[in-house]
Write a structure and sequence with these properties.
Helix content: 55-70%
Order of helices and strands: HHHHHH
Radius of gyration: 13 Å
């Protein structure tokens, strides 16, 4: 997944394929299911929103700030910016791991 996120052509890479849910639709809202949506845009899951807030709290010292409205392009920029500091990379890896775990098994969180 990290390789796909770092590549220039990220679409279509829905989390739905990873989670084996109906392709193209978020499990928590009616939005198209993409990596960008699951990590930085979805407001349909309180758990994801909490994980996202925790992530942004951890990386704010590196100049990575939370914004309420995130476009796909800004989501990719947030992800890439998180790779510019080693401590932010660890926070990003933990965040992605937890979101993926939640998408695979919502009861696991």
């Amino acid at each position: 997944m990290l390789t796909c996120l770092l590549a220039d052509d990220l679409r279509p890479l829905g989390f739905s394929r990873m989670t084996s849910s109906a392709p193209g639709q978020c499990s928590f809202c009616a939005h198209v299911d993409t990596v960008e949506h699951a990590l930085f845009q979805c407001w349909g899951s309180a758990e994801i929103v909490l994980l996202r807030a925790q992530f942004f709290h951890q990386v704010k010292e590196f100049g990575i700030v939370d914004v309420n409205v995130v476009t796909d392009e800004l989501a990719v920029a947030l992800f890439r910016d998180s790779l510019s500091h080693w401590d932010a990379v660890r926070a990003l890896a933990a965040f992605v791991y937890r979101v993926c775990g939640l998408l695979k098994d919502p009861e696991a969180l």
